[in-house]
Write a structure and sequence with these properties.
Layout: E1 5-15, H1 18-26, E2 32-37, E3 40-44, E4 54-58, E5 63-71, H2 74-86, E6 96-97, E7 105-110, E8 116-121, E9 140-148, H3 151-162, E10 165-172, E11 176-183, E12 191-195, E13 200-207, H4 211-223, E14 228-234, E15 241-246, E16 252-256, E17 270-273, H5 277-280, H6 291-296
Parallel strand pairs: 1-4, 5-8, 9-12, 10-17, 13-16
Antiparallel strand pairs: 1-5, 2-3, 3-4, 6-7, 7-8, 9-13, 10-11, 11-12, 14-15, 15-16
């Protein structure tokens, strides 16, 4: 099938302690607040042309509001909406103008697990800049990982309906398959699907300028007392670095850099045995992956499943 999704735009979170989350992301994490209103904040990455990469919304319940992807043209948005509607996918609304920063044209729908997904085109490009050496703030949003009780069914849904392709899989002899890395462009993954006990956010990843900036940022967070659950290290699948932290509401967030770019015509997916330590961390510098580390990213049960966010 033709691929109409081009890239990951932003991830939107609802949080009970809005002020604490806003201070975290616009402070030590290194994003820039570019717009907002009472109980809502839009945060951009300095090196990204996207209007924002994180939206925070004040809510009594913690939830993943939505994941937003880009399309090339409004015609592609319409084509995707028609394709999904014909396949019986529940649309939250028909394609139309967006009222969020940068405007654009898009629509929302529920994925197989009940997450709200948005696809948009013609969003205005934000004025952004090249980060300087040693400037340890995120350049852009790298990828998002989602927990699913049935990763094979969710993988098939994204392949069938949105044209994502499988890049690699993590598995072990004792646990079977635990993560599928999915791409919508030559980047190794814009999204991954992790096996978890319930549908929820696994982690959000932010690209840094380079290895030095990645390490400076990791050190800044450690000095600020932010809890790091895993890292620093370098994965085999995707060949990217990783430092995983917890935000104030227990969502896992990652600093990364140097995520692999693939030759899509020549690429064949691997199945990596993640029980081998060099698979989870090529460098051998991170604390060992174990059940306690894995459970940190199971996150809370998402109360927003099959319930579209109010904004």
């Amino acid at each position: 099938m033709s691929r109409l999704i081009t890239h990951l735009r932003h991830v939107d979170l609802a949080v009970p302690d809005y002020d604490k989350q806003r201070a975290f992301y616009s402070g030590v994490w290194g994003l820039t607040e570019v717009a907002g209103d009472t109980g809502i904040s839009f945060l951009a990455a300095e090196g990204s042309p996207e209007q924002y990469v994180i939206r925070l919304r004040e809510s009594e319940e913690k939830r993943l509001d939505l994941v937003s992807f880009g399309a090339a043209t409004p015609a592609d948005v319409d084509a995707l909406a028609g394709r999904l509607g014909a396949a019986g996918v529940t649309l939250v609304g028909e394609p139309g103008p967006l009222a969020t920063p940068g405007g654009g044209y898009g629509f929302r729908f529920f994925d197989l697990d009940g997450r709200t997904i948005e696809v948009s085109a013609d969003v205005a490009v934000r004025a952004h800049r090249r980060l300087e050496p040693k400037e340890s703030v995120p350049v852009r949003l790298s990828h998002v990982v989602l927990n699913s009780p049935d990763i094979d069914a969710t993988r098939d849904w994204y392949e069938t309906h949105l044209g994502f392709a499988l890049s690699d899989t993590l598995a072990s002899p004792h646990m079977g398959q635990v993560m599928h890395f999915m791409r919508c462009n030559p980047q190794h993954h814009s999204m991954a699907i992790a096996r978890g006990p319930h549908a929820s956010l696994h982690h959000i990843s932010f690209e840094m300028r380079g290895l030095d900036e990645y390490m400076y940022g990791t050190g800044r967070l450690l000095r600020a007392g932010v809890r790091m659950i895993w890292g620093p290290g370098r994965h085999l699948a995707g060949d990217n670095t990783f430092s995983y932290f917890l935000d104030p509401h227990g969502n896992t967030v990652e600093y990364t850099t140097e995520l692999e770019e693939l030759d899509e015509d020549a690429w064949h997916p691997h199945v990596y045995d993640f029980s081998q330590p060099e698979v989870t961390d090529q460098w051998g510098t991170a604390n060992p992956m174990n059940e306690l580390v894995a459970k940190e990213s199971f996150n809370d049960v998402d109360r927003g499943v099959f319930v579209a966010p109010p904004v």
